[in-house]
Queue: 2 jobs
Job 1
Amino acid sequence: MWEVILKILVISIVGIVSILVLSSLLSSIYNASESLFIEHIRITGAAILLLVSFSLVVLNLSLTRHPFYEYWLIIGAGVIVGIIYIY
């Protein structure tokens, strides 16, 4: 059961990272960076991304006997993108 929860967290992190990166690509093509609504959604998405990444860290370290190192790549990407989009 915990493996399913960990996989759902990984999929959600990859999805949010993809959405944030694609939103930057879209704003460079279409000048949507002036909209405060889109900026608010980016900051909220980044905060959610950091929260999900840190919950994956806690669950990975507490629930598994051997921490899976492939999760650390996903966690690292989530934290880096989250920090970039918050600032």
Job 2
Amino acid sequence: MTLEQAKDVRGLTEAQKKLLQDIATAAKRFSRQPKDFAATNATELKKELDEVIARKRTKQTKQREKKDAKKQCVELLKEMAEGQNALTDYTHLLARLKTIRAEIEKENKQIKLQKLIADSGLNKDELIEYFSKL
């Protein structure tokens, strides 16, 4: 179903109509062909549009949560190093953050190695034998 056919479908919700309008606007703005839908009838179209809307909402929620967490981190750092109730100064805080960063990098490497070992299918004895040959 084309975008024009989708716009003619009756009984769409406001969110579905807005999504169709956003698709048309994006296609016009970027000078490309509008998206065609896999749906062959109104019911399938509505379901497909609802799935797209749900994915967009999920993505927006995750972005909002990430932004809020970042804001909280920055505020906490400021509280810890500024003002009368400061726990430390920025110099000491920076040194501690660098230590934490190194620990996180080490943990991430270990996680990658564990995944690699699990994906290899080798058991403990086979791994020991392999590494002893290096």
